[in-house]
Amino acid sequence: MTPNIPISILELAIITQDSDASGTLQKTTAIAQLADSLGYNRFWLAEHHNMPHVASSATVVLIGYIASKTEHIRVGSGGIMLPNHAPLIIAEQFGTLETLYPNRIDLGLGRAPGTDGLTAQAIRKDFFEQSQRFPQNVAALQEFFSVENAGAKVRAFPAEGIKVPIWILGSSMDSAALAAAKGLPYAFAGHFAPKQMVQAFEFYRNNFQPSEFLDQPKIMACVNAIAADTDAQAERLSTSLTQMFLNLIRNDRKPLQPPLDSLDGLMSEEEHFHVNQMTSCSFVGSKKKLETELKQFIKYTRIDELMITSPIFDHQEKLKSIQLMKEVIDDMK
């Protein structure tokens, strides 16, 4: 028997070839509203910079906007790249969001820049140093949220005493070790770096230290998911995902491309290897196929929650995929 676990969405706000930032943010809002109505658990947005075809660079602004346009779904970051920011500022921002939208805000933290090295330096001159101080900065952020900080000379308002769930995000053993040591929930970026996922989950479980936030491990896997009425339709839609990762490998900055009837001749053998490695944690197909594959995945990984991201070119097809995915999870017994 497969437990009926919560399902959530990571929305990367990728601009498609036929759209722009304004249109993309309108579509992102519609996706969040559909997810809200269907009973998805979370809707997370990711911090990226210097990427002309990603519309989520002002992540905190977008989180607030999406929260204002939805009613029940938890809205948060997947993630905020903490080395880009002073912990005090993040505490103030997320304390404000939680004050405006009580019990609906999540704070997922990553240690990567979410961009290239030159842009990371433009964001913060001491980025490399701060990335090395990630564990200390997470602790500083927690301190600003705590009621015990009331006696400090530097305080974060309105964050103090506010309970915003903090998740550690990652794609390596380092993030698993930190989440386990601090007794925090852990989310793994299986949608683009699945290689160490199962190993990281096992390390996290085996080394988890209970905390005031969690008494037992809590794990979420983020995967690519593309659903359609038939396997063939879903496979065709997934060619946009393949092209996206191919362009990433080639450092060819393009908007999300339309699906192709065939991928023959599109990439070299080496490119094919790297794309397959990055997208190996992808679920593509009809409801029947997805239910079988996801049952196996959930049983094998023993995750507590599934998060999906769905780079689909056509907006209506993406909305349909999100609806079908919720049905797949709901139908699991």
Describe this protein with a few key phrases.
single chain, 8-stranded parallel β-barrel, 333 residues, alpha/beta
What would you say this structure looks like, in words?
With 333 residues, this protein is an alpha/beta fold. Helix content is 44%, strand content 15%. It has helices at 21-38, 59-68, 87-100, 117-123, 127-132, 134-145, 173-182, 197-207, 231-237, 239-249, 269-278, 287-301, 315-331, and strands at residues 7-11, 42-45, 74-81, 105-110, 166-170, 186-188, 219-227, 282-285, 305-309. An eight-stranded parallel beta barrel has the order 1-2-3-4-5-6-7-9, surrounded by eight helices. Helix 8 links the parallel strand 6 and strand 7 (219-227). The longest helix has 18 residues, at 21-38. The chain is globular and about 65 Å long. The model has no long low-confidence stretch (mean pLDDT 96).
What's the short story on this structure?
The protein has 333 residues and is an alpha/beta fold. It has 13 helices and nine strands.
> Averaged pLDDT, please?
96
Outline, from the CA principal axes? Answer: globular
Q: Going across the biggest sheet, name each strand in turn.
A: 1-2-3-4-5-6-7-9
| Structure class | alpha/beta
Number of strands: 9
List segments where confidence is low: pLDDT < 50 over at least 5 consecutive residues. Answer: none
Cα distance spanning the termini: 6 Å
Strand content: 5-15%
List SSEs in N-to-C order. EHEHEHEHHHEHEHEHHHEHEH
How many separate helices?
A: 13
Largest sheet: 8 strands, parallel, barrel
Radius of gyration: 19 Å
